Structure formats: C-alpha cells, structure tokens
Amino acid sequence: MSAIVLDQVSKTYGGRAVLAPTSLAIAKGRFVALVGGSGAGKTTLLKLMNGLSTPTTGRVLIEEADIAERPGPELRRGIGYVFQEIGLFPHMSVAQNIGITPDLLGWPPGEIAARVDALLDLVALPRDVAGRSPAQLSGGQRQRVGVARALAARPSILLMDEPFGALDPVTRVALADDVRRLHETLSLTTVMVTHDVGEALLLADEVVVMADGEVLAHAPPRDLLAGHPDPVVADLIAAPRKQAERLAELARG
C-alpha cells in the first residue's frame, strides 16, 4: 500500500514552473530522501504532500484519500513536519511546544504530560528540559524538540525539510541516527529533504534525485551507487563516493 501518491502533480508560481508534472509513489513504512541542488523542487514537493502548498495540476493522495477533500489543519495534524529552522515558539516552554498539537486536539492535560515525557525519552532528551524555554537549549536539543513536536499526535507520516542542516557534524550524525531509529520503532513513513547526498544514501531506503523541478531518479541507494545513465544523477552520487575513497586513502596512510 502506498502511504503517499503524487499523481501528475505540478506547481507554478507567477507563471514560472517550479515543479514539472510529477508522479511518485511512496510505500507505507519506507524512509525516502529527496536530494538535489537548490531550486530542484524538493521543498515544493514536500509541502505539496501535506497541503502547505496546493498543486497547480494533479492530485495528492495520502493513504489513498485525496487531500484536496480534507481540511488543511485536519490533514496536517495527522502528518508530522520538521522544519530546517525548527520554528519552536519562543514564548512557550519545551513541554508546551511539544504538546501544542495534542492540546489543539483536545487531549486531557494528564495525557499530554505523559506524552511529552515519553517523547523526550524517545528523542534522547532529559525530562528536566520540559520546563525550559527553547532559548536555553543548544541547536541540537532544539531540533530534537522539533522532532518530538512533530511526533506528538502519533502521526503515521513524518516529513522533514533539511532537519540537520544547521547542526555541527557530530550532532548531525547522532540526530540522523536517532531519526532513523524512531522511523523504525514507530513504523513511520518518512520523507526527508536533504542537500547531503551521502546522508541520504546512508539513511534512506529510497532516494529521489531532483533537478530543475523534475524527478530524475527514484531508487534504493545500492542501485544508484551501481550507476545511472543520467549524468546529473551519476555526478551527484559520485561525490560522496569520492569523499569516502579519499578518506580510505588517508586512513591507509
């Protein structure tokens, strides 16, 4: 069963096409990475999946239902979304940030508090951060809170837009590993936008390569590493391989 289906979806802004007609199916339970340069259409594609942007043509299906027939707020409460800039509310505590969607859905306070504690455990944060403000946390901790908030209402789908982009390399690797663990533990369908091709190859079950508003490839990492006829795809995949080869040479001395 496909969790997300894009059926000949396109997007035009001010007469300029930013996404060509695109069809894409993401199976339930898969971790999919969208990669490509700036302006490739990755974030546009992601926003179409949860109704933050409306397609110019085509339709988007979430678990076989056309999202055009569902109210936007209702749809988005069932889909977790993690932003690159995190977007935590500065005037709210960590607990209030995590619990905002359950609160909007009318969960009892005790259930929200229990969910906040459980999520802090899941994203590997000490429970005593619950009363702090976002400004008192490190960048990595704030991003973990962002992931916890996205998971608060128990969504089956998690969308992430460059979630690790502003983090230092050590924190980035640790959080990426934890996100993959959460994906498996919670049986999520995860779609992540990233500029880091190596990260996509290591984390994802499938990689979608985009350029100039078009999907050039959609395949498992092993297949892409084996070679691809499109030179843009081949060059993109070759970059992390060259880095790995150089590191191996340095290690050998």
UniProtKB/TrEMBL annotation:
The keyword Nucleotide-binding appears for this protein: yes
Signal sequence region: none
Keyword tags: ATP-binding, Nucleotide-binding, Transport
Segments forming domain ABC transporter: 4-237
Molecular function, one GO term: ATP binding
UniProt cross-references to PROSITE patterns, sorted A to Z: ABC_TRANSPORTER_1, ABC_TRANSPORTER_2
Pfam families: ABC_tran
Domain of life, per lineage: Bacteria
Keyword Coiled coil in record: no
Name used for this protein in its record: ABC transporter ATP-binding protein
Species of origin: Caulobacter segnis
